[in-house]
Amino acid sequence: MRLLVLTACSALPGPRTLPALKLRGGGVQQTLDALPHDAKALAASFVVLGGFDKFVQHLAASETISRPAARKTMHVGAGPLFLLCWPLFSNEETAKNWAMVGPLALTVKAAAAGSGLIDDPKTVASMSRSGDRCELLRGPALYGAVFVAATMLCWRELSGVLALVALCAGDGAAEIFGASPFGRRSPRLPWCRRKSVVGTCSFFAATTLGGATFALYFRGLGWWSVSTKPLLRGVAATAAAAALAESFDTGAWDNPVVFGAAVAAARRAFPAE
Question: Model-level pTM?
Fold first, then answer.
């Protein structure tokens, strides 16, 4: 019997077989060190995006800001924060697969709340205009899908960066200034009476300013090498194309339409980037 026990024990894996589970002698630190770099970057992006989501939900739930203001805060802020997380990831080809998990998770969460699969009134309050959860299945879900598409199709490309800036800063500025007293007195666009000249000009200005800021910043990281004047001209051309696309009444499809127009214009302006 003793021989059988000793034989069985000798067949068990030794402590070197599972080094990640050994907690003594800095085992936790070894486990963290063994994680891929992009897994750590993903965790950091989850903290940033998830923290921002929870913060806006808190503001809406406590009625610090209105439901429309919470929705617009999410819409405007998520894109720039996500772009600032891009440099955290490695230069590996698979880095974009890790990076897209963050926006994909938020999109799935919005879709689950909108369909009623989960009961999440805070998410509904922060992402809907009227409080109807079904709204999340249209605008917010398509918004998140565009983030995933930008990450997978335009990873660290000028087209992807400018498209996300247009989607967030540009669209947000158009709604904010278009709904202002000055915007309500502004002439209407001939092809879309719902939208104003002020709103469209605000879209163009915000996209140009935000796009130029991110384009110059990421150029400093070595992601592209376009000189300043051609870079700014291309950013302005992309902003103009995106503003024109946004000026049409496309309903819930405005996010994909703006994204597609911005990507197409940016790739024409920067064919080598």
Answer: 0.83
If you search the block for the tokens 């598409």, which residue do you land on?
Answer: 149
Tens digits of per-residue pLDDT, 69-116?
Answer: 888 888 899 999 999 999 999 999 999 999 999 999 988 988 898 888
CA atoms of 88 and 107, how far apart (whole Å): 21
Note whether 198 and 177 are within 8 A (CB).
yes
For the record, the structure tokens of 227 come out as 């000189």
Neighbouring residues of 63: CB distance < 8 A, sequence distance ≥ 6: none
Give the closest residue to 214 by CA, choosing from 74, 83, 41: 83
Backbone angles phi, psi at 196, to 5 degrees: -110, 165
* pLDDT tens string 16-67: 433 444 444 455 555 555 578 999 999 999 999 889 988 988 888 888 888 7
C-alpha–C-alpha distance, residues 235 and 42, integer Å = 29
Please give the structure tokens belonging to residue 146.
Answer: 């565009």
Phi, psi of 192 (to 5 degrees): -155, 95
Q: Which candidate, 148, 45, 167, 38, places its Cα nearest to that of 100?
A: 148
User: Burial, 219: exposed, middle or buried (Cβ in 10 Å; 0-12, 13-18, 19+)?
Assistant: middle
β-partners of residue 192 are: 189
Residue type, 168: C
